[in-house]
Write a structure and sequence with these properties.
Blueprint: E1 7-8, E2 11-14, E3 17-21, E4 43-44, E5 53-60, E6 63-74, E7 77-80, E8 86-87, E9 96-97, E10 105-109, E11 121-131, H1 139-144, E12 151-155, E13 178-183, E14 199-208, E15 212-215, E16 229-234, E17 237-247, E18 257-261, H2 266-277, H3 305-308, H4 324-327, E19 361-364, H5 367-370
Length: 371
Amino acid sequence: MKFQPPRPLLLVLMAVGVLHCACEAPDAQLAVPDSPATIVGGVETNYESWQSVVALVTLMNGRPAGICTGSLIHPEVVLTAGHCVRLAGGFLSPSYDHTKNPGNLVVKIGASVGPMGGKGDELSNVAEAVHHPTWNGDINAAVAKGGFDLALVHLSTPATDMGTYCLREGDQPLKDEKGIIVGYGLLGSSQTMSAGKHRFGDTSVRAVTSSTIEIGNPTATCQGDSGGPLFTLVEDRWEITGVTSYGGPTCLPNQGAFSANVVSQFDWINEQVEKWTGDSLNNCTLCGATERCEPELPTEDPVDTEIGEGEGEGEGEGTEEGEDSEGGEGEGKDEGAKAEGDTPAGCGCSAVGASQTVPLFSLLSVLAELL
């Protein structure tokens, strides 16, 4: 079997068709075809949950040309993948740098932004964008050197009526720890027109390094999910632990999806947010799919901790099927209050090879399907 490098999970759509890139991880077994996946195996939210996970639409010549995902971590700031902001490009792939041209990036919300990013409600234009110092637009180079596929977007109009998510700080996730992924990506690598719908899925951490988190089982990420969050449960709060970066071309639901490790770069993210807004991170207002965080109260009596142990029955209800891991801020204490597994990851937008970079892009005509 011919080796193929990793593919990023940005979905790039051209006027004459759909150009999607996906990086295959440097593991030969990941090249084995598998059944199509949705947030590979996930379900649509109908924009009734995880509403502060947003879509980032790249514009080319003023027209929607690509979809990424991002998360509100401050009313003015969206966390996403580095390749959603800057991509070096290659054979049949575009190149762009939104740090120089932030006007070519638009943030949208809704149950669907359409397969080409032309639908949905516009949340804000982008005033500024910055990527991690180790990101140069090439996923191969970043992965080979242990770089970080991370970026931040500064909104022109603050999203003051929307909630924000906290970032995991301190301890890394552990292998087999439960997680949740959210994004606007494809249901499967061959289902090009399935992109643009807001979906979530349960997942598990498979392996963790300082720069990446591999996830999978029962769901994983696919093209268009790039930049989306990997949540893990810390005590009673779902916190962003990774950002979807790259994965295999067939979008396997059980392995081969990688996220950039957010825990390792908490300080860099915090410094940039402070620079733009004057605020520090983790003054978040969302603790789960829809749950608002309760204000933290000072502990007056150590005896109160006994009451806290029984909170599992009251706070979260997790009524939607498939949301077991997120359903109760209370129920979550069984699976996620203590990290016991490594954190999953996603897919990016450049190829990763052992000694060479091989872009793995597919150009599919979709005009007939759109008309």
